[in-house]
Amino acid sequence: MVICLGTISPAAARSPDLVLSATWHARPCDAQPVAHCPPVEDEPGQPVAETGYTGLQNPARGRSLLAPGADPLAVFERRPLDVYIVPEGGAFLDDDHTDPHYGVDYACPTDYLQGQVTYFYPIAPGFVTARSSCLWCYVDGDAQGRVGWKWPRYNFGWGGLVLVETPINPQVSVYILYAHVARDFVSLGDFVTPDEIIGVVGTSGYSEQYHVHVEIRYGPPGLFWNADFSQWATHDRWMATMFTDPALVVYRQNHGLLRAALEQWGPLRPEPQPIP
Ligand SMILES: [Zn+2]
Fold first, then answer.
1. pTM, rounded to two decimals
2. What CATH code is carried by the domain that includes residue 138?
3. Ligand 1 centre from 97 Cα, in Å?
4. How many domains does the chain have?
5. Which domain holds residue 235?
6. Could you tell me the distance, in angstroms and rounded to a whole number, from the CA of residue 238 to the centre of ligand 1?
7. How many CA atoms within 13 Å lie on the side-chain side of 232?
8. Ligand 1 center to residue 54 CA distance, Å?
9. Residue 23 lies in a domain
10. Ligand 1 centre from 30 Cα, in Å?
């Protein structure tokens, strides 16, 4: 996938204050120089980040994707589906479930009941920091990848997933997880925007009907770069990362609350403790 971020000089690309403003809709890329996310140097004194087996570095590091203007969080205004239902209270599509639910389930039943594919979009621009097709869901489950357990190898019930990291500032990124996907069209490190389809709504993992489960958290940049969501270490890190109500993200009138939370997060951040 071509990354189209407009013109970035090598000197500007190294600036930690670099703001990749809302030029992602400036297409086609052929019309202007293309920047392939130049590598960002680590902060002085900080160890070089783990790059993982791909050898790629997390392109979200040291960047900010805030929108210029009065509401810098305006980049978070999209819903993952154009037409959708959200259950009352944003909880489960299925009332029978009582176990904790950390996201909002979006669905478009009229589409899938008519056999139509439902595509979904990222809520905000960002970098794909993890993804999984959940092969085991299809090995053990039905043709849609449905399984009856939240086992680790089913990505703890999330099934096929895409995790997009939106860097807010050098200290904090917002992570948006899209789960139960049937398939996705992204690769690790891709820059994605709300203008483009990133996957197909599915029902893989611990799921009973077609929907996209959206879960939003925020924390240090790079926390889930190339993470394997079938591992307990990733699961525990994800659950320990600050959760935020998607209603704070996708409704403009709530952006003040979210912005305050993001700004306060750094100073209030507790020292990470090793997992016993
Ligand atoms: Zn859900």
1. 0.79
2. 2.70.70.10
3. 10
4. 1
5. 75-268
6. 15
7. 2
8. 30
9. no
10. 39
